[in-house]
Amino acid sequence: MLLAAVGLGAALGGGMAYVEVRPVEAVPDETAPPAAAADAAKVAVDREEYDFGTVDADQEASHDFVFTNAGTAPLALAPGMTTCRCTVSLVDTTAVLPGKSSKVKVTWRPRGAIGPYRRTVSIRTNDPDRPDVTLTVVGEVTVGLRAEPPELVLSGLGIGEGGSGQVRVWCNLPRPPLEVTRWGLADKSTAQFFQVTWEALPEAEVRREKGAKSGVLLRVAVKPGLPQGPFQQTISLETNQPSHPELTIPLKGEVESDISVAGPNWSSQLGVLDIGTVSSQAGAQRRLLLVVRGAQCREVRFKPVRTVPEFLEVRVGETTVIGNNEASHTPLFIQIPRGCRAANHLGTKAAKLGEILLETNHPRVPQVRILVRFAVEG
């Protein structure tokens, strides 16, 4: 095989095409007598343009063009000019015998370009009447699957209450029609509070969505019982689409209640106390405030029931009532003791966040969960 790379200015976006010429018949016998001077090759192509239709931006498409020698002398094929800087031509220059055929395979790789495209590849021949044959491939590049909205946000959930949300998943590929075969959740600690169901979207609704060929409606239900504060999840969908067997949809929200947390390095959006990296010899201590509002503010008490890792030390301070029984503040002291072992709880896949679980006597907020990001060196 002869490998040649040909580059020209890119048009209508980036892309990559491969051209491969494969002889259908065996190589002619070199001992055969040479053709007479009057003999000549004559090229004939089954088709010179092929429409790939809709192509996924992450996939490739290919088509075999059949070249036939309708002349009386061997037909030679070689790569010519192309309309893409990224085009690479792979050509077998073995001559095609009279009456025989060879295939030219054109493979198109979109490389992320979105929208319609038109690309041409030139094949040089020894046909005196047609020294160049232009092959054209056309189509449209699209994103195979997309979620609307791309992230599901469920805010304002009351403590002890449930909620719900919807996501439409559109498939821009013509076939097969989109189906969801399985679903799962990334955070197993709160997975029991979520339920995902789905159904195919009606054809009339699919037709109104630009570019869509099929779609699925996801219904996400949140069961009562999620701990107070922000939550994050990731929904993983398995589909019947070969080019997109899996799709992930971020899910986040917040369970609001009469109890909140405040303090330095505390992210109420994430529900995380960020301590950072500390030395085992020095240790560290942080102070948060547990704020209670409402009629129960004076009576609410907190009790640590679990820490991850176990060496985290948690102490609840004295409660102070603010104003005319409108709110109360209870300090919470979190300590990484000196001399503790090295640990990594920075929140990566291999190093999960630390956790503090507090039990309360509030009638609607039985637990408060605090996540802690830290690492211990030494």
Structural overview:
This protein has 378 residues and is mostly beta strands. It is built from 1 helix and 29 strands. The protein has one helix spanning 203-208; strands at residues 2-5, 16-23, 43-45, 49-56, 61-69, 77-82, 88-91, 101-109, 115-125, 132-142, 145-148, 152-158, 163-171, 180-185, 194-200, 214-222, 229-241, 244-256, 259-262, 266-267, 272-279, 284-293, 302-308, 313-316, 320-322, 327-336, 343-345, 354-360, 367-377. The strands form 6 sheets. A 6-stranded mixed β-sheet has the order 1-7-2-8-5-3, with no helix packed on it. Strand 20 and strand 21 (272-279) form a beta hairpin. The longest helix is centred in the middle third of the chain and has 6 residues, at 203-208. The radius of gyration is 33 Å and the shape is elongated. The relative contact order is 0.12.
Helices and strands, with pairings:
Blueprint: E1 2-5, E2 16-23, E3 43-45, E4 49-56, E5 61-69, E6 77-82, E7 88-91, E8 101-109, E9 115-125, E10 132-142, E11 145-148, E12 152-158, E13 163-171, E14 180-185, E15 194-200, H1 203-208, E16 214-222, E17 229-241, E18 244-256, E19 259-262, E20 266-267, E21 272-279, E22 284-293, E23 302-308, E24 313-316, E25 320-322, E26 327-336, E27 343-345, E28 354-360, E29 367-377
Parallel strand pairs: 2-7, 4-10, 12-18, 21-29
Antiparallel strand pairs: 1-7, 2-8, 3-5, 5-8, 6-9, 9-10, 11-13, 13-16, 14-17, 15-16, 17-18, 19-22, 20-21, 22-26, 23-28, 24-26, 25-26, 27-29, 28-29
